[in-house]
Amino acid sequence: MGEELKVPANLTRRTFVTGMGAITVMGGLSLAGCSPSGKKASDKADEYDIVIIGSGGAGMSAAIAAFDKGVSKIVVLEKMPSTGGNTNFSSSGMNASETKFQKEQGIDDSNALFAEETLTGGHDTGDVELVTFMCDNSAGAIDWLDGLGITLNNITMTGGMSVKRCHRPTDGSAVGKTLVAGLVEAVKDRKIEVRTNCDAKELVVEGSTVTGVKVEEKSKQSTLSAKAVIMATGGLGANQDMVTKYRPDLKGYVTTNQSGATGDGYTMAEAAGAELVQMDQIQIHPTVEQESSQLIAEGIRGGGAILVNKEGKRFIDEMKTRDKVSAAELEQPGGFAWEVFDQTVYDSNKAVAGYDKAGLVKKGDDLASLANTIEVDPAALKATVEAYNAVTTSGAADEMGRTQGCIAFADGAMYAIKVAPGIHHEMGGIKINTKNEALSADDKPIAGLYAAGEVTGGIHGNNRIGGNAVCDIIVFGKNVGEVVAATLSK
Ligand code: ADP
């Protein structure tokens, strides 16, 4: 998730299918069914070294990394009309430790601390080996992106992290659009084939080896053969039936996911013998605007915003992990919160202007007028903000125990967005090892099948830290491309 694409400011996941057409055209990727040379697909043209299913951050990183290690017959399949998947909507940044940008900015960090806080954030249910691999390779992934022209040097904090390690584009915008635009550009520069509107339906398994993929394009079925298939299909948030199969309690929740997040990768991989782990670990995100399903970036809380209930009172340390903040919100009257912030927070998070244009932000010239607009008792809201400000102004302990990102509100214009939890991320998925091989129940690699990104499971355990999904998809996306290239060259 180059510079910002001209995406309509009010683009939401619900307008994604039509809205993202603009991105594909601007991204300039080859269109459905055509090879880069424009040749018509023939049987021979459908023989590949690597077929990658899914064009999100993980799939595109895999394609670029494999190409750069010498593999040329690569195709990326995308069932939607446009590339980028949910990665387009990544709202925070990419967590990484010991990076050159942290060092330049005097931020002291270590891979061990990053791993420890990731595991603690997931209540020690994450996979230690995968987490350690992710953290140890995070700085290298930041450098790799920088080499592709995707510079993430504006660093902030997300809930559950004690150090500034969430890397964002220079202008402080949400990472998703910049990342996708940069990866699309890199894919295009390498003339890697991308087939949009190409729906992968089933893996071809011969003996116990995955040898291809059955696809449907424009209602026509065909089979692509592959020496290796990389599953990078993302999550399942847009598939209510699958969500409720694993988590009946999440029936009716809105989702932040784009409509291609239908969980196909889990079904296809399982049918080929892969083990799915922790599938009930579906993360709900605490700050989702419910009418638009727009996720409100976590950097806004990290920059100083607070959450208040309809009585104008705070109810939690806003920097706690997503599971805890979501649970606390649901206990409030009406099961929602107002995310309240000042002009400084508005100006330092580029995403806010987009939310504002989309009509999601309530405003007041001062705190009292904001309180009236959102129908919260002005005296209660004033008392709440004064108590919060005292942490900065007089060094008082925060009443909610917040120690991170406690920044006093400046007088002047005030803003609020109404938020509640929404389905956000499937933390379970295909079991993998650090070579991104898809594993069976007895930990045996399924020959020919690899997986990367949200479709994989067990890395984050039962709570994923904000900023860690992008780290996961880039580190493991790059890794799987390099691993497969090395395997094919033997
Ligand atoms: P990640 O963050 O893991 O890269 P994303 O959600 O960003 O995941 O991207 C996954 C992509 O895979 C999405 O663009 C989605 O539309 C695509 N996808 C999902 N299922 C299929 C399928 N059956 N065939 C082709 N593409 C698929």
TrEMBL record:
Cofactor(s) the record lists: FAD
Residues annotated as signal peptide: none
Entry-linked InterPro entries: FAD-dep_OxRdtase_2_FAD-bd, FAD-oxidoreductase_2, FAD/NAD-bd_sf, Flavocytochrome_c, Succ_DH/fumarate_Rdtase_cat_sf, TAT_signal
UniProt xrefs under Pfam families: FAD_binding_2
GO MF term list: FMN binding; fumarate reductase (NADH) activity; steroid dehydrogenase activity, acting on the CH-CH group of donors
Top-level division of the source organism's lineage: Bacteria
SUPFAM superfamilies recorded: FAD/NAD(P)-binding domain, Succinate dehydrogenase/fumarate reductase flavoprotein, catalytic domain
Domain FAD-dependent oxidoreductase 2 FAD-binding: 49-470
Swiss-Prot/TrEMBL keywords: FAD, Flavoprotein, Oxidoreductase
EC number: 1.3.1.6
Keyword Oxidoreductase tagged: yes
PANTHER family from the UniProt entry: FAD-DEPENDENT OXIDOREDUCTASE 2 FAD BINDING DOMAIN-CONTAINING PROTEIN (PTHR43400:SF7), FUMARATE REDUCTASE (PTHR43400)
Family affiliation: Belongs to the FAD-dependent oxidoreductase 2 family. FRD/SDH subfamily.
Entries under NCBIfam families matching the protein: flavo_cyto_c (TIGR01813), PRK06481.1 (NF005064)
Protein name per its UniProtKB record: Fumarate reductase
Native organism taxonomy: Bacteria, Bacillati, Actinomycetota, Coriobacteriia, Eggerthellales
